[in-house]
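Q: What would this chain look like folded?
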Amino acid sequence: MNRIEGVILDWAGTAVDFGCFAPVNVFVDIFSQAGIEVTMEEARAPMGMLKIDHIRAMLAMPRISALWKDKYGRDFSEEDVHRLYAAFEPALMASLSEYTDPIPGVIEAVDALRADGLKIGSTTGYTRSMMDVVTQGAREKGYFPDHLVTPDETGSYGRPYPYMIFRNMEHLKLSASWKVVKAGDTASDIQEGVQAGVWSVGVVIGSSEMGLSQEEYDRLSANERAEAIKRTRRAFLANGADFTIDTLAELPALIGTINQMLAKGERPGQARRLQTAEL
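A: My prediction, written as structure tokens:
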């Protein structure tokens, strides 16, 4: 049948850890310890990538690269990347257990998807050892997908490569990429979905792209919320999203819409082209 068979969800900023604060705070700290002050925006920009790739991407940013050269009298090296990562991993591991709360509405949305016969996979920018902490905490609070693939299982080829999605499809026995939906909260999530040929969906509220904690979001005025949602939505569409939703609570209804599109012979990318025209 031409229906969605499975959904693949990101973790931090999509299913747990509203605002994706666990890693971003550590990125800021390790660069500060190296004598380089980075902004929250710079620390968030590569979010969703394998974390050592994230550090490499930050060091390659023109402003950070120039600061590094001013301080150390040379360009950054792979040795610098690995030294920063060696500081990052234990610092993140020490705090990860505090960032495993499911985002409001996620458990109910996943229950609805399962009730409709869909399988739930997941991908992440965290390593397997990091995810051991996250999955345990999330499961204790009621959230658990059917499968998880980390970059450890794909030769460290994380996002935006599509391989983690393919491994989920293989394990969950999903029959075609166009019968799969990937939902995430970063540009690299969207690109992962696009490159895998699945329906790529950006989740706006609680996302790393929006960059606000639950408390910060709740304090916004109605106009400020609308502007933050609009800005985040445009960023996802600019990176190729087929659709955006405010929260995962909207995903079951969206899948109903996608099923109607599939029945008409439509495939991922067609809605993308229409929505991108709005930018």
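The first strand starts at residue 6 and ends at 9.
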